[in-house]
Amino acid sequence: MATRASGGTGRRRRNGGGSKPEERPVKRPAKRAARTAPQTGRYTKPVPRSVRRSGPWYGPTVLLLLVGGVLVVVLNYLTVLPGSVSVWYLIGGIVALFIGFLMATRYR
Asked: What is the span of the domain harbouring residue 73?
């Protein structure tokens, strides 16, 4: 078996084998312009979560859209609506359902 002349661990060093590591320049983050409003000295507290509430009309509107959308789709399927089966009734019912779900996710 041949022995190595360096007597080391056999790994190569990144800095070329010297004992003194290279000094790297320190990178500074680029300065960005402030994107906030200028300070006026007055502070407005955020609205607490307990105070943020939906209006009294919001819940019934969500229910009306959801139930109305289902009714339009079912009545279109049963050919009860005027004009026989129409794609526009189906689209209207699905849009009402979609808006009802969107409003339900924002209910507080």
From this structure: 58-105
